[in-house]
UniProtKB/TrEMBL annotation:
Source species of the chain: Sphingomonas lacunae
Keywords: Fatty acid metabolism, Isomerase, Lipid degradation, Lipid metabolism, Lyase, Multifunctional enzyme, NAD, Oxidoreductase, Peroxisome
Protein name: 3-hydroxyacyl-CoA dehydrogenase
UniProt KW Membrane keyword: no
UniProt record similarity statement: In the N-terminal section; belongs to the enoyl-CoA hydratase/isomerase family. Belongs to the enoyl-CoA hydratase/isomerase family.
InterPro entries in the record: 3-OHacyl-CoA_DH_NAD-bd, 3HC_DH_C, 6-PGluconate_DH-like_C_sf, ClpP/crotonase-like_dom_sf, Enoyl-CoA_hyd/isom_CS, Enoyl-CoA_hydra/iso, NAD(P)-bd_dom_sf
SUPFAM superfamilies referenced in this protein's UniProt entry, alphabetically: 6-phosphogluconate dehydrogenase C-terminal domain-like (SSF48179), ClpP/crotonase (SSF52096), NAD(P)-binding Rossmann-fold domains (SSF51735)
GO molecular function: (3S)-3-hydroxyacyl-CoA dehydrogenase (NAD+) activity; enoyl-CoA hydratase activity; isomerase activity; NAD+ binding
Subunit composition and interactions: Monomer.
GO biological processes: fatty acid beta-oxidation
Pathway membership: Lipid metabolism; fatty acid beta-oxidation
Compartmental location: Peroxisome
Length: 676
């Protein structure tokens, strides 16, 4: 293989042979790395002057896993399991030297080494479950032989890595190296290991109590609902407790193959890349310089403004928060403190961290206090006149170069920008409620938004832990624009004979965290209501006239108890029935399939229109919006990915039958047999 990249090299230090992997950016186990490992270990084993072997990596990290881009393609190079087995069975002691992240197949490589040395900052884990997979190169069989069943079960099913310090406590790391002396420390350890000899993991007994597996399943029942991978991971660890090693490996292989060929893992792997792709902005000059953001202003201390503020305080960025009256300001600041204290009580922050974060917050009643802010985010009442007036004032107050952002969820960002003399500095930063929790940030690019303003907003989004997606200006941007295409037919279905609970249940079974009517109740049915109980033109008017405003007053499409648990409401259903009969609409049976076709297919159609109009950069960005903003189940990969599984032809046929105007892009793709 003369065209093989030199991604694995070797060096000698006396009797120690050092294998070095160098495959940027994350030293993934591409075919040529597997080939290189196989060749170099064979060379080290054949050389009698070699007494011990060290495996280490150049670059930012130890091996971060299998090369995900190779999944689903024709296999090339040596089989990974075969390479690992030959390392484990080496007749000379093998030491892994770990820095950065030893993840997935990377940790599995370290597990077949006889000893592990790591720098204190390293992290070790098996995140395959997050890709809908399991560690398929012996990880589920070897981990319980090193860290015991309890820790192994937790690691494979949760996917969170251990710090090197924790790994040393549980026996996964044999020695912590100096942060800057890993290569030398590992060689020194290898010299000591010559006397200890090889220690194949497969020969070690499985320790610990298998009862932990059932406990994990019940503790995570809600979180894992609908997912296959956590359960498959646990089944493999359970198998390790009762099967001989080689049979355990076979069991693991069968489970791995099932997951790998299924749609859940395909969706989750797609999302891994979709999320990273979303950060890339089309058409941006390469040399764009970011603007510095060291102080933020937030206007509005309500639920949204408060949540937005928390994101920045948590990252150590000072925030000036503005309200119009003292009482509301005090209430907003109080809620922020209460939220932090509740998190501290759960152990997420130390009490002194709460004080430090609150110390970064400056409450004020005066817009003038925003004069020194680098980024100002407006989160006030959703009304164009109010927003334009505010941006006009901000234009006079904000320092030159400050970024002015609106958290509007529907309104025209270009019109808002037109209220200023600096539309290039204006954009939308649309957070999702609760804004300190939800990971999505839609960054809305106005016609005049400057490239550096857009890039800075995307970067600050990443800094505060959000997944930021670029959206164009249109009513509701990406997420809410598609959401309304779900709500309109859901409401129509009520008039044809379905009940809220029936429609919501279809969405819950699909894997959404809540259905359309649960969401309406959460948002409030009285938003935009004309407040005249005698004027009943829509079903919503009928609900408001009956004093059913949603969760906020304990009754909407459902009844709620004081803990906000919902039950089907006879009164609500009677209002629906009454409204329908007065409208002279016939009642009929509505099926699950019809609910899916009527409420989900139009979302796909709207997504295609959004793409066609260039309001989203790519289909996968739309999927990122739905997964991180609305809790679309990641194992279904977002609406555009899911549409491909469902079949675009089937979707187009149904939309045609429903009399819905089909997006030309969607139709063309369906005709060509393509997906998004
Ligand atoms: N395969 C292929 N490409 C990968 C990769 C992998 N395993 N991991 C990361 N990359 C790519 C990313 O797509 C990205 O590419 P881009 O620059 O073109 O967008 C680039 O490497 C850098 O990645 P990040 O932007 O994520 O860099 P960070 O520094 O933020 O994070 C990381 C680094 C923690 C290693 C993170 O990339 C990560 O979590 N990677 C995935 C790890 C993983 O899931 N490993 C298990 C793989 S499955 C497996 O091993 C199966 C086995 O059991 C048989």
């Amino acid at each position: 293989m003369s065209d093989m990249p030199q991604s694995v090299t070797s060096a000698r230090d006396g009797e120690v042979y050092v294998v070095i992997v160098n495959n940027p950016p994350v030293n993934a186990l591409s075919w040529h790395v597997r080939q290189g490992l196989s060749d170099k270990f064979a060379e080290a084993l054949a050389d009698d002057s070699v007494k011990a072997i060290v495996l280490r990596c150049d670059g930012a990290t130890f091996i971060a896993g299998a090369d995900i881009t190779e999944f689903g393609k024709a296999p090339q190079g040596p089989d990974f399991n075969a390479v690992l087995n030959s390392i484990e069975q080496a007749t000379k002691p093998v030491v892994a030297a770990i820095h950065g992240t030893a993840l997935g197949g990377g940790l599995e490589t370290a597990l077949v080494c006889h000893y592990r040395v790591a720098v204190p900052s390293a992290k070790l884990g098996v995140p395959e479950v997050k890709l809908g997979l399991l560690p398929g190169a012996g990880g589920t069989q070897r981990l319980p032989r090193i860290v015991g069943v309890e820790m192994a079960a937790e690691m494979v099913s949760g996917g969170e890595p251990l710090s090197a310090k924790k790994a040393a406590e549980v026996g996964l790391v044999d020695r912590l190296a100096g942060e800057d002396s890993l290569a030398a420390d590992a060689i020194a350890f290898a010299r000591e290991a010559i006397a200890m000899g090889p220690r194949p993991t497969r020969d070690r007994p499985v320790t610990g109590d298998v009862a932990v597996i059932e406990k994990l399943k019940s503790a995570n029942a809600r979180k894992w609902k609908g997912f296959d991978a956590p359960y498959a991971n646990l089944a493999c660890v359970e198998a390790a407790t009762r099967l001989p090693f080689d049979e355990g490996l076979k069991f693991e292989r069968t489970e791995f193959t099932k997951l790998m060929s299924g749609s859940q893992s395909a969706a989750q792997r797609y999302m891994f890349f979709a999320e990273r792709q979303a950060a890339k902005i089309d058409g941006l000059p390469k040399d764009v310089q970011l603007r510095g953001i060291s102080k933020v202003g937030v206007i509005g201390a309500g639920t949204m403004g408060g949540g937005i503020t928390m994101n920045f305080l948590q990252k150590g960025i000072p925030v000036t928060i503005i309200e119009m009256v003292q009482e509301n300001l005090d209430r907003g600041v109080g809620v922020i403190r209460k939220n932090y204290e509740a998190s501290a009580a759960k152990g997420r922050f130390k009490p002194e961290q709460v004080e430090a974060m609150m110390g970064l917050l400056t409450p004020s009643l005066s817009l003038e206090d925003l004069a020194d802010c680098d980024l100002i985010i407006e989160a006030v009442y959703e009304n164009m006149d109010v927003k334009k007036e505010l941006f006009g004032k901000l234009d006079a107050i904000a320092k030159p170069g400050a970024i002015l952002a609106s958290n509007t969820s529907y309104l025209d960002v270009n019109e808002i920008a037109s209220a200023t003399k600096r539309p290039a500095d204006v954009l939308g930063m649309h957070f999702f409620s609760p804004a300190n929790v939800m990971k999505l940030l839609e960054v809305v690019r106005g016609d005049a938004t400057a490239p550096d303003v857009l890039a800075t907003a995307m970067a600050i989004g990443k800094k505060i832990g959000k997944v930021a997606v670029v959206a164009g200006v249109c009513h509701g941007f990406i997420g809410n624009r598609m959401l309304s295409q779900r709500q309109i037919p859901a409401n129509a279905l009520l008039m044809e004979g379905a009940l809220p609970d029936q429609i919501d249940q279809v969405h819950l079974d699909f894997g959404m965290p809540m259905g359309p009517f649960q969401m309406s109740d959460l948002a409030g049915l009285d938003i935009g209501w004309h407040r005249d109980p005698s004027r009943i033109e829509t079903l919503r008017d009928a609900f408001c006239a009956a004093g059913r405003f949603g969760q906020k007053n304990g009754k909407g499409f459902y009844d709620y108890d004081e803990r906000r648990n919902r039950t089907v409401s006879a009164e609500a259903n009677a209002i629906i029935e009454d409204f329908r009969s007065k409208s002279n609409l016939a009642k009929r049976e509505v099926t699950t399939q019809e609910i899916i076709e009527r409420t989900i297919y139009p979302m796909v159609n709207e997504g295609a229109k959004i793409l066609e109009e260039g309001k989203a950069q790519r289909a996968s960005d739309i999927d990122v919006v739905w997964i991180y903003g609305y809790g679309w189940p990641v194992y279904r990969g977002g609406p555009m990915f899911w549409a491909g599984l469902e079949g675009l032809g089937k979707i187009v046929a149904s939309l045609d039958a429903q009399g819905i105007e089909v997006s030309p892009l969607l139709r063309a793709k369906a005709e060509k047999g393509e997906s998004f």
